[in-house]
Amino acid sequence: MSEHHHDHDHGHDHDGKPIQEDELPALEAQILETSVRELLIEKGVVSADDIRRAIEAMETRGESLGAKIVVRAWTDPAFKEKLLTSSDDALMEFGIDMRPMELCVVENTEDVHNMVVCTLCSCYPRPILGIPPAWYKRRDYRSRAVREPRAVLQEFGTELPDNRQVRVHDSNADLRYLVLPKRPEGTEGWTNDQLEALVTRDSMIGVSDVRSLDELVG
Mean per-residue pLDDT for 34-47? Predict the structure, then answer.
């Protein structure tokens, strides 16, 4: 499944501004969403309560579930193999069924760093990570992550050596990605709770590494 990516190794010069958090959805999109929602309620397809409950359920999800999956892969080699080769079966162990969407899990290594984008809109593994951050949906992130991934990573504070390849994976309506970050050295013998505290949403999108041991202690 790893063929669904773009390999980039550009320099750091760019004309874009740093990725921001403050972009709002286009007015046209807001109008369309309101119209479709009101029509579905009027036709009795869904109720306002159905929509409210679905939104509340989505908002309660966050990176904690993704962190549990990452830590399970760090500590259980058989599960890691299943996650990388048959993610649907692996997710079933957590009670998650993303079908008909496919999830592709890509692993960070000493030689390769992965990051995820959706160049068309904001396709995102919501059943695992919840609602995407605002910057993930911004046009500048969606375009610049493909053109100049190292520059974007720098803006998130992620510095990579020149000899480490950056792979950019483009999500779509049928295929979502999750980055399996590297487990930090020196965490042997840690409990699952301690390990999960290292894993962040951004590390599972690939714009940053997991928290450092110093950050966790601090």
Answer: 85
